[in-house]
Amino acid sequence: APPSHLTLLGQQYPTDSITNISPTIISKLPLRLHTQPFHPLNTLRTLIESHFPDYAHLSSFSPLVTPYKNFDELSFPTDHPGRSVADSYYVNKDLMLRTHTSAHEIDVFRSGKTKWLLTADVYRRDEIDGSHYPVFHQMEGARIFSSDASGMKEVEEDNARLSQHLSQSNILIEDILHITPTNPAQPSHDPRHSELVAVNLKLSLNSLLLHLFAGVAGASKEEPLRVRWIEAYFPFTSPSYEVEVFFRGKWLEILGCGVVGQATLDRADVPHKMGWAFGLGLERISMILNSIPDIRLFWSTDPRFLSQFSNTDRKISTFKPYSKYPSCFKDVSFWLPLGEDNKKIHENDLCDLVRDVAGDLVEDVKMIDSFRHPKNNRTSLCYRINYRSMDKSLSNEETNALHSGVVSRLQDQFRVEIR
Ligand code: PHE
């Protein structure tokens, strides 16, 4: 039977029927990589903070929040998929691990701050591969102005200053219209004011990206760094945008942003303000800036990883892989329990199970086959689990032991029949 209580960050919390936070996840709660001296995520945080010197810099908010704060207060609809136990970690029905730093927007606005950055660990149940990890780090940034003429004058002056500063750079920015029928200004906003604020958001972030990426490989004269703005949707901003950076032949999403929903500011007791907010993923940016090939490396305690980032003279160090150890894949095929075919095992449940057994020794998990037996209607699945250590060579015995641990947990937890 599952425990009746969990101890999280030194406090006890009751569990219930939806508790799904696993031991692996619990062990990450105290680590707070974004505050560890010399850690690349800490270095990146301070680098971004230094670009916004007159903003409040916050980084000690607890990851435990109510679903109300994480979703409802930000106008997420009641049927939003992010709320499901398949996608988010719940301590119990009243407490969860934040899925984004936006969960703190209202508290920070209510405290009276008008320019701020907030960095934190966030948690989402996900697949296993080189760029997904169930814990990652986001930085939320926001700036709000008085929505009267004096506030809008402040925005205009800042826009003029920023455009001047951005006029020469070797970053190629693909731009879009700020306000469109599908990405509208909010009903309570004068569209001209919304446009000014959206321009301020875009200039502020382009200036940050220039600061971060200028001089980095791929941003040379011959091959400028490519950044693109695309229309997006978030329940708590409008208009909304996503920013992507072209890296190794692919567009990588690095941040979401938009004009802050007036409902957010009303709930924070600052109804006479308007402004913008963004949320950026620190791992994605660090993987590009520091050439870090696998997201698990951020959790490594290997001195061969950490020592590469202890050079205080250089803002950004390029990671030199110390060798890739051989990988070893093992397949597991099983029949789903009879009569349960329509409530199939969710892939995220399987991935949490694999992480609980193998931790960071698992590199990726993929379904390679699925079929239904025509006669008895049973469903068979086959998963391929790729094991690889970042720090050493795994012996055959070690890999076999990990895999048989996975297989027996699958039988115990999901009642599957191994083929
Ligand atoms: N919280 C959003 C996410 O995690 C990003 C975001 C932040 C979007 C602030 C708009 C404004 O995807």
Structure, described:
It is built from 11 helices and 17 strands. It is α+β, with helices and mostly antiparallel strands. An 8-stranded mixed sheet has the order 3-7-8-13-12-11-10-9. A hairpin with a 2-residue loop joins strand 11 (237-247) and strand 12. The longest helix has 23 residues, at 191-213. It starts with a strand and ends with a strand. The mean pLDDT is 92. Bound molecules: phenylalanine (PHE). Phenylalanine is lined by residues 100, 102, 140, 234, 237, 256-258, 277-279.
Secondary-structure topology with pairs:
Elements: E1 5-8, E2 11-14, H1 23-28, H2 40-51, E3 56-58, E4 64-65, H3 67-70, E5 90-92, E6 95-97, H4 105-110, E7 115-123, E8 135-146, H5 149-166, E9 171-174, H6 191-213, E10 225-234, E11 237-247, E12 250-260, H7 262-267, E13 273-281, H8 282-289, H9 303-306, E14 328-335, H10 347-358, E15 362-372, E16 379-387, H11 396-414, E17 417-418
Parallel strand pairs: 3-7, 9-10
Antiparallel strand pairs: 1-2, 4-6, 5-6, 7-8, 8-13, 10-11, 11-12, 12-13, 14-16, 14-17, 15-16
Helix pairs in contact: 2-8, 5-6, 10-11
The structure holds phenylalanine (PHE).
Function: Is responsible for the charging of tRNA(Phe) with phenylalanine in mitochondrial translation.
Family: Belongs to the class-II aminoacyl-tRNA synthetase family.
Pfam families: FDX-ACB, tRNA-synt_2d
